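Why do we care about 3D structure at all? Because function follows from shape, and shape follows, mostly, from sequence. That is the central idea of this module. The next example makes it concrete: a single protein chain, its amino acid sequence, and then its structure expressed as tokens.
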Amino acid sequence: MKVLKSVSMGLGLGLLLCGRAFAAPVETAPGLAIEQGQFVLDGKPLRIIAGDMHYTRVPREYWRARLKMAKAMGLNTITTYVFWNAHETVPGHYDFSGQNDIGEFVREARQEGLYVILRPGPYVCSEWDLGGLPAWLLKDRDTRIRSTDPKFMQPAQRWLHRLGQELAPLQYARGGNIIAVQVENEYGSFGKDNDAYLQQIRKDIVDSGFDASMLYTSDSAPEPGSLPGLPKVINFGVGHAREKLAKLQQWQPGGPYMVGEYWVGWFDHWGGPHYVIDAAKMANELAGMLKQGYSVSLYMFHGGTSFGWMSGANWDDDSYQPDVTSYDYDSPLDESGRPTPKYYALRKVIAEATGITPPPVPAAPATQAIADIKLDESLSLWDALPTPTASHELKTMEELGESYGDILYRKRIDIDASGTLHIDGLHDYALIYINGKRIGTLDRRLKQDSLAMKLAKGDTLDLLVQNDGRINFGEKLTHERKGILGAVSLQGKQLLDWQIHPLPFVEDENSAYARGPCRHAPCVYRATFNASVSGNADADTFLDTKGLGKGMIWLNGHPLGRFWNIGPQRTLYVPGAWLKPSGNQLVVLDLLTEGEPTLHTLKQPVLGTPKQAP
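And the structure:
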């Protein structure tokens, strides 16, 4: 995914499917193939009507219900990215359990009568931290990610081979339901060593066992990042069908013609509006594409939530733009899995185009509201700092082995000094303290990197830096380390000799909370509460963060995500499957708020004032 300035254009009636065979040699396998410019499966025509849904963004307990909703809307295929950084948080240690059990996700899709298109990357974008690449790749500042640099290629190859152990047996030709596998992702919007890099990724995917599925590439750039012999699909948003499908015909005369990502909504940035896209306009354009026989994948059918620290960021208009936690995306199925008016509009369009009556729409479960969750236990961050690392010069989070959370840089001042404090390479939000008193904040979004101050000999200068999400699209992601990337200077003189505290914020049951308010922010709060006593204890709800400042929230050990009082998002999605009838534990890290806040949950989300996407 990427930011695209749209121009509203209707679908040209002249874009008819050609009957000519695809000119270039096409890489196919038993199962999905191309004949006369059309997709066929086992020799029979197949029009792919798919939707993106990501296993990591949906609680595992709800995968089945969401897949049933996809089938009931008329989809025949689920498209999913694979998020490398969710599976290999530590080099060489792979996790395919619980929420990361993508094999089970694919099997459940098959049980619901859905094919799967797999998008394993290794880079995926998707408004996900670093586009799904593990942050530990950036520990060595010389590593060139998304390139043929062996320091990137070798771990990427190991990852793809390990993924193949989980998913290669689930390909359609081997009795499963994976019909196609994407090679990398939108490389035309990034790559410099295009052919060499893509050839290697293609080889690694095949060597990982994905040699029984059709391989293809996907792009939204003016020129696609692809390889001879690989079919191409094109990505674009509502209002772009006419010019983009004409471009696809130029790329791939004779077909097949597929929209790999039809952007049915848009994502939100902190401090911006909540974007939506008109359902009627989208349904009309989709109807035109389906009428002409195009295959389409809706991005997103169901967006879900970028739980924890996983929401990414964009660099657009020469500005850093971090994404909110919600990935509702104005999708047909909303963040909590409930059908929207857009869902029903698209269901009607698909049924009319295919002549197939879909299954009945499952009933949407009720939501609940919970009042008076009092954050009556607290802990000041200053009382719980871990052992620091001494360093002559500053180091980034990645250099200290930290991927997510905050980092604290502390220096004792040895002479009286005053002037402008300048931070070179602030990533991303800094709170500045002198002797424990906050004197200001700096925000990368606003291009803030300097603050006037006066220091005396013996003062303690603290720079608390929060990671707001790594850039996930474009060349900027190659340098997207967190913390402070350069030097800190005061009146032009570099400050050296620091004590650095990595703060990954892994929940610790033994933290020394005290009853009562927190008097010295940043604060970590804890509350224990019961869910509804009216029989809906396992119903979804939405935590209202009104009254909080900026930070992160966990529920019963599950990281719900980031909050920030600048909006647009005000509520965090709370899956009912993660609630207990009684004894629920909420932990809140707030950089800004002191006292003893009381929170509530709502039956409906508050995602911000809607605005039509650009």
